[in-house]
Amino acid sequence: MLSIFDIVAGLLTLTAVFAWLNHRFLGLPNNAGLLLMGLAASLVLVALEVLVPQVAVFGELESFIEKINFSETLLDGMLAFLLFASALQINLLTLRDRAWAVGAMATLGVVIPLSPWRLCSGAPGSFSPCPSPSPGLWYSAR
Length: 142
What we know:
Blueprint: H1 4-26, H2 30-51, H3 58-66, H4 70-88, H5 92-97, H6 99-111, H7 116-120
Helix pairs in contact: 1-2
């Protein structure tokens, strides 16, 4: 069975090869080119599995993927790298030109979920600092 290091190394190598092919032959933007090549590679693997059933392409990978806790892997492992990689892509001049729009959306994204209506409504899954029972929109439906 492949180790996690082997799988990550293989995926990074495959990504580098796809990025080079995109740059050399297709000329698409990086994200679009890698997306299309990943889609094409997965379709080739699915076709191989259907046309040649003796070749168990997905058996080993499926057993490996079933063992991964994706929420822990994404939040504890990959999120910092994804945020760092996306921060490298930011054009500061464009961000400065759109500062008011970005600031407004960021403010609304924080204020709306924490609004008093949401906090005191007793909506399922919300934190409610109001005395219980609270006469909110969701309280009458219980």
